[in-house]
Amino acid sequence: MEESTVTLSVPGNDLMPGLVGQRDELLRQVEGAFPGAAINVRGNEITIDGDNAETVRRVFDEMVLMLERGLSIDSLTLERAIDMVRADESPSEVLTTEILRTARNKPVRPRSAGQKRYVEAVADGIVTFAIGPAGTGKSWLAVAMAIRAMKADLVDRIVLTRPLVEAGERVGFLPGDLMAKVDPYLRPLYDALFDMLDAEHAQRLLDRGQVEVAPLAFMRGRTLNNSFIILDEAQNTTPEQMKMFLTRVGFGSRVVVTGDISQVDVPDGRSGLEGLESMLTGINGLSFVRLGARDVVRHRIVQDIVEAYDRADSRSVDRPS
Fold first, then answer.
1. Which of 64, 80, 90, 274 has its CA 20 to 30 A from that of 250?
2. Which of 94, 124, 142 is at the close of a domain?
3. What's the pLDDT at 168?
4. Are 106 and 230 in the same domain?
């Protein structure tokens, strides 16, 4: 355990309020995260004594960089920053990366080092697979990157698709006409689209066919050029469907495939996502990004639940048969 005294001089006169927060709530949060450290603020200097003093100084250094880059720090942002510093990551590099701004001028950013690697892989590659549990931003960030590509005139069209079999339900047994049947399965993709674009703009793109939201079966027989194509919930494809989808890619297109291999609902259990990494590794322009519990951006309890399941899965694998 490191024990020392370190002093940080905060540049300028504007940053200290953003570092300590209203009524010193951010300062108290840092102290709560490092109970062995005593933190004293006097003027533009922060003095840290005791256990983990150097780690606490790095937290404040990163906070200064985030504030200098225009990021407001709230309790959730600080919690993520502390977790990243403990993992020897740089929150100022991750949390200030902006993908785009929504219609309400809200920035869309990666919220973990894993999410930043994912965004970079999508930007640099042709086909990107994102594998990880729910809540890691796989679909959300893919839609954001698709909209950014369209705004930059890198693609002419966005295609959002999902397989129709989920949670043991078959579309043929659902009531209503085709669109009424498929709508519940595609709704999460619509939600992400309408969260990032104003409703009128999103509807206009849908009406013009510049954004298409359709079940995976509609991809058969097509070649998609100059398109940004997202296959969501890919663990529920069959191997045959996955091959069909990947061979739809045309010139000037980019593809993102997202899935959670622990949530396979294919009737015979044979997921088109399983075994792909070993088969496709080494293909130029194609990459796999693994996301985990540390990339979950929902309530903290979701991260704890994912970690508990991971531990249970690990024990079941290690247990002799």
1. 274
2. 94
3. 40
4. yes
Terminal-to-terminal C-alpha distance of the chain: 41
Q: Which whole-number Å values give the CA distances from 22 to 8, 18, 61, 73, 74, in the listed order?
A: 20, 8, 19, 11, 10
Residue 49 shares a structural domain with residue 110: no
196-252 residue pLDDT tens: 998 899 889 989 999 998 888 888 888 899 999 999 999 999 999 999 999 999 999
Name the CA dihedral angle for 142, 310, 314, 257, rounded to a multiple of 10 degrees: -10
Residues 166 and 291 in one domain: yes
Nearest to 81 by CA among 33, 28, 36: 33
- Rounded to an integer, what distance in angstroms lies between the CA atom of residue 213 and that of residue 162? 9
Q: How many domains does the chain have?
A: 2
User: What tens digit of pLDDT does each residue of 119-133 get?
Assistant: 999 999 999 999 999
Query: 61 lies in which domain range?
Result: 3-94
The answer to whether residues 105 and 86 touch, using CB atoms and an 8 Å cutoff, is: no
Q: What is the pLDDT of residues 267-302, one digit of tens each?
A: 777 899 999 999 998 999 999 999 998 898 766 677
Cα angle for residues 192, 136, 284 (degrees, 5° grid)? 90
